[in-house]
Amino acid sequence: MRDIAGLKAALAGLVLSDDPALLRQKSRDFYWYSPILKQRLDGLAAELWVQPREEAEVLRILTEARARRIPVTVRGGATGNYGQCVPLEGGVLLDMTAMARPLALEDGVLTAQAGARLIDLDLWARERGWELRLWPSTKRSATIGGFVAGGGAGVGGIAHGTLRERGNLLGARVATMQDPPAILELAGEAAAPINRAYGTTGVITALRLPLAPAQAWRDVAVAFPAYGAALRFAAALALSDGIAKKMCATFQPALVPFFRGIADAVPQGQALVLAMIAPSGLLPLAELAREYGGALVAEQETLAAERDPDATPFYEYCWNHTTLQVLKRDRGVTYLQMRFPFEETVAAVEAACALFPDEVWMHTECVRFGGRFTMTALPVIRWRGPERLAEIMAGFEAIGIAIANPHVFTIEEGSGYRRVPGDQLGFKRMTDPLGLLNPGKMRDFDRG
Ligand SMILES: Cc1cc2nc3c(=O)[nH]c(=O)nc-3n(C[C@H](O)[C@H](O)[C@H](O)COP(=O)(O)OP(=O)(O)OC[C@H]3O[C@@H](n4cnc5c(N)ncnc54)[C@H](O)[C@@H]3O)c2cc1C
């Protein structure tokens, strides 16, 4: 029997709650995209929600929880997709969103508290001439700590790769579950063990990230009579080094009607490319589109759209927002995460499209990995049960496409090509020997 009442008393003066309705609400993320995870994770909840305001409060919470052997699961914006912040074994839900201050910006390097929302940090940096290199399509609700601990690819990937690229994460302050809990200052590669570790290796309290010079990005939509032309255009755009861009995604025609804000602008039955382009790139982009038989059908200022709660920046049709746009109107679908080969990328996407044409609606994102261009995909999949999903994954893998399975909740099973190099397991043994941080999410950790 866990001493939650004792913990609550020991944390007097902190912002906390044990209200069951609040605990249920705060213990969820977007795992319900996966019918498999929905069945497995529905109903799980923490026993105490605590919202620290400063690093010292984080340490106090960890110290008191450790003394009582009570697990602690960290929560940012709770926009993760694999039940990453769902506490499998109850305990404390440590909500970081009150630690949300930017701390410094010097020589293009941002230091910020981990609970800051990405949109707030980006706006703050922009006022100083800089912008985030990378953000997830959940920029308007996700936190920087959650992005580093749980995500890592997204808008900006076409120019800067993923958060795993050397140089995209410069350092972190991390609170541990050692005896006694302590703060570690990690710089450079030493910070890798907290990267996409789902909060199992420590509580990130602050992060250091390099920025990019700010641009007044334009959202552009280009329609194509056939998906093949859209793919070839996207690949050509990705490799057009003279056109500054932040994003480029392709969509098969079946997905377009689900994009409420722009569907009417796209001729019926046409494929779509959505991109974010610097103003200087608009003319060459229009010329490139013409070469591939495409027509520019919509354009808006990205930053104006993201500041308007009633508007949709085009990146909210991209990355894993594509699945969400479809799920809003059709709950009979789910999705996958795939990476195509670096060579003959477009041919590989077309081969994938030919495999399951009635069940898979293709959506790709242009990205760089290790300096090389390829496309990743988050296709929407008609849900016909776990066996059929496994067949579809095996079919893709058989033609050389890498899969990162989003229907599992452990780091090891789900990361696939997104796995962070380095010894996260060894680091966890040092920072959390009792296995109290988000237990069950690092499969290979043995609590003995
Ligand atoms: C519609 C939609 C679109 C998405 N698009 C993208 C995308 O483009 N790219 C992408 O990478 N992801 C994407 N995601 C997944 C998710 O939105 C991102 O990974 C996001 O950055 C998570 O941030 P969060 O604050 O919501 O984290 P949470 O969901 O709260 O947490 C994520 C994980 O990080 C841990 N964590 C959170 N904060 C800390 C901390 N301070 N210290 C230690 N651990 C912590 C949590 O325990 C959990 O394991 C998408 C999800 C949805 C629903």
Give a written overview of the molecule.
A hairpin with a 2-residue loop joins strand 18 and strand 19 (372-377). The strands form 4 sheets. The protein has an 8-stranded antiparallel beta sheet with strand order 14-11-13-12-18-19-16-21. Strands 5, 6, 7, 8, 9 and 10 form a 6-stranded antiparallel beta sheet that branches. Helices cover 28% and strands 23% of the residues. The protein folds into 3 domains: 4-97, Uridine Diphospho-n-acetylenolpyruvylglucosamine Reductase, domain 2, CATH 3.30.43.10; 98-214, Uridine Diphospho-n-acetylenolpyruvylglucosamine Reductase, domain 3, CATH 3.30.465; 218-403, FAD-linked oxidases, C-terminal domain (Vanillyl-alcohol Oxidase, Chain A, domain 3, 3-Layer(aba) Sandwich). The protein contains 15 helices and 21 strands. With 448 residues, the protein is an alpha+beta fold. It has helices at 4-10, 20-26, 35-41, 55-67, 118-126, 144-150, 157-160, 227-238, 282-291, 302-307, 321-327, 345-355, 386-398, 411-415, 424-431, and strands at residues 15-17, 48-51, 72-75, 92-95, 102-106, 109-113, 130-132, 171-175, 183-187, 203-213, 218-224, 245-251, 271-277, 295-301, 333-335, 338-339, 360-361, 363-369, 372-377, 380-382, 402-403. The radius of gyration is 22 Å and the shape is globular. The model has no long low-confidence stretch (mean pLDDT 96). Flavin-adenine dinucleotide binds next to strand 3, helix 6, strand 10 and helix 11.
